Amino acid sequence: xxxxxxxxxxxxxxxxxxxxxxxxxxxxxxxxxxxxxxxxxxxxxxxxxxxxxxxxxxxxxxxxxxxxxxxxxxxxxxxxxxxxxxxxxxxxxxxxxx
Length: 98
Fold this sequence. Notes:
alpha/beta
């Protein structure tokens, strides 16, 4: 059902700096008063919930499940690390990035 369409979606890709960039973007969005979710190498977090990550970018099914949880919890913007491996495997093919 494309949960990403209900939120502002920001993907960060590249050889290095993805984690740092997502943390910076998260800080900016929080300062702007938005409810923010982050998916990345270190963890997945939103609205006080935190869990460890298995992959920089989750597998497609897990990614959609997590995005649906974030949407249902009221997250307004998601910042996520998108690895080149995930792009090649089309894990983010159903994500509607802004």
